[in-house]
Amino acid sequence: MAATSGAPLEMQRERGRFRPRFFCAWPVHVAIVNDLLFVSLFEAIVALPAHLIWGLKGTGEVARRTSRSWFDHIKAFYVGSMRYAVTLRYLVVLVAFGALAGSLWYMTTKMEFVLFPSE
To answer: Are the CB atoms for 1 and 19 separated by under 8 Å?
Structure first.
């Protein structure tokens, strides 16, 4: 691509040659994907093992029981709520379809959708 001259921005736009560079040789979406891949790699190699190491400290039943006691409360609540939802499964399905129907109604009557705006 040819380099743009020192002409003002308006003249460059009129000629159709205005291309912002964002201080890199790659397109912006390539740079963003590249950055996200490196952050994900850092998370998988450094941060995830650092979060998991606390569960491996100590041996025996006492260490296992004390390190997981916070999760047992969450698990007990989840199991209880799932048992309750399964006993009332028809009501749960009815409420879910009602929420779907309500959101579709709201979308079609109250929200404006413009696929290609004029400006």
So the answer is: yes
DSSP 2: P
Number of H helices, E strands in the chain: 6, 0
Q: What's the CA gap between 106 and 100, in Å, rounded?
A: 10
pLDDT digits (tens, 9 = 90+) for 12-71: 454 555 555 555 555 667 778 888 999 999 888 888 877 777 666 655 555 555 556 777
CA dihedral for 108, 110, 115, 116, sign (positive or negative): positive
The number of distinct structural domains making up the chain is 2
- Distance separating alpha carbons of residues 5 and 25, to the nearest angstrom: 18
Q: Say yes or no: 42 and 78 in one domain.
A: no
